[in-house]
Specification:
This protein is mostly helical. 74% of the residues lie in helices and 0% in strands. It has helices spanning 2-44, 53-88, 94-131, 144-157, 159-167, 174-177, 190-212, 223-234, 244-251, 258-272.
């Protein structure tokens, strides 16, 4: 009798429990994204980011935060409607929940496939650019605008690209990412630089969360690249072991003029990710 009663209670309560779980999950996801957005907005006030790939990478992570917040709100709306329907029909709306769950799964599958296509296309193209970096006189990293025009659409469609590139620490140091000189041509103060440092570090942390919650697994073809991926995923500088290939990028090509090297090495490093 006890087992039968418990099974009946569970059967009648199951629709409410499932919807409640999704409601809690949606609240947690949207709440986390909102807190991250508010925290980074507060830290980023009066911080000037350099135009080009630095701004593109940070904007990409912001898009990832917005998507996470909207996805959480969507879960809240769906679960709230489900609870209301089940309450009104005494649990009779289970078929509606089942259909909604199937449609939601299909939508996620399509979205994930589209994201995979963007990532695959971007990675394959980056490999070609990287292979031609020394032999092609019109290599993409030599043209900052062309490089950014190639990078920006990919980070908007797949923000995890921005998170990996910024989080790997090879897209340029903070001096490269921040606007060090203001409109008057004078260098920013240490306090302004410190605000920028804190803001970028917060964005790296948010990016690490985007990578780990993306459901995607990233593996490097070499230990050097895997080290960079691990740094981006963990947001820990203490495990960073800079590979020789990156050392070469940071030193630059001695045959080029110093002025050109300083403006171009950021593009090479971002492409190496």
């Amino acid at each position: 009798i006890v087992v039968f009663a418990a099974s009946q209670i569970w059967q009648n309560a199951a629709p409410f429990i499932g919807a409640a779980n999704e409601l809690i999950d949606g609240l947690a996801q949207s709440g986390r994204a909102f807190i991250e957005k508010l925290s980074t907005w507060h830290a980023g006030r009066r911080v000037k980011i350099e135009e080009g790939h630095p701004k593109t990478l940070l904007d990409g992570i912001k898009i990832g935060m917005n998507r996470a917040m909207w996805e959480g709100l969507g879960k809240i709306a769906k679960s709230s409607i489900s609870i209301g329907l089940n309450a009104a029909s005494c649990g009779g709306a289970a078929i509606v929940d089942a259909v909604a769950a199937v449609l939601q799964s299909v939508a996620k599958l399509v979205w994930r496939f589209a994201e995979y296509c963007v990532l695959n296309t971007f990675i394959n193209r980056a490999k070609i650019h990287w292979a031609n970096r020394e032999t092609d006189l019109s290599a993409i990293h030599l043209d900052a605008k062309r490089f950014n025009d190639w990078l920006r659409p990919a980070t908007r469609k797949a923000p995890v690209i921005a998170a990996l590139t910024l989080g790997s620490r090879i897209a340029g140091d903070k001096i490269r990412l921040l606007q060090i000189y203001n409109e008057k041509g004078t260098m920013i103060s240490f306090q302004q630089f410190e605000r920028g440092r804190i803001y970028i570090d917060k964005m790296k942390g948010v990016g690490a969360g985007l990578i780990n919650r993306s459901g995607l697994e990233f593996k490097g073809q070499s230990q050097a690249i895997q080290d960079l991926i691990d740094v981006a995923k963990s947001n820990r500088d203490d495990i960073f072991r800079r590979p020789k290939a990156v050392d070469g990028i940071l030193r630059g090509n001695g045959r080029r003029k110093a002025k050109k090297r300083s403006s171009r090495h950021g593009g090479q490093m971002a492409m190496a990710a």
